[in-house]
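Milestone M4 deliverable, item 7.
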Amino acid sequence: MANRSSNRSAKLEDEADVRYDIDTPFTSHDAKILLIARGEDEVEIIVGDIPEPSGYNLDKNYPDLLEQEEEMQRNAVAEWIIEETTKLFSEYDWETSEYKSNNPNYHLRDIYFTCRKDELDEAVMAAKKFITELEEKALMHAKKFDRTYYSPRDEL
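Output delivered:
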């Protein structure tokens, strides 16, 4: 496990003042929204364990695969999904964090930003919308490129 590095939500989970678990039935894990008070009037919001579109970090993990047209298209669409869904955070100075697995592959897991306390309600709603929209688009992406995905059917 020496190669593994944690994402931001894993590193700061114990510091969270509030945690919301969000069911994501089409992924192997549930997403979470962490709220961490940062001073008198600021809150850090971490949208963690987000459903990463298949192939999102393909250029970082397997750069030679990008020479194959389908893999290049899959990566481009995955990048576009993140760009499109993060528009919900356009009024915030948001960043991403990833973790490195033992393979070692990089995976997108968090989007985080800070906001004023008086903006918190809207920011949390944007985070919930982001998770839903991202999961929906990641599912469509997996189906389009014939990738495995979790389904509620698997639970029945």
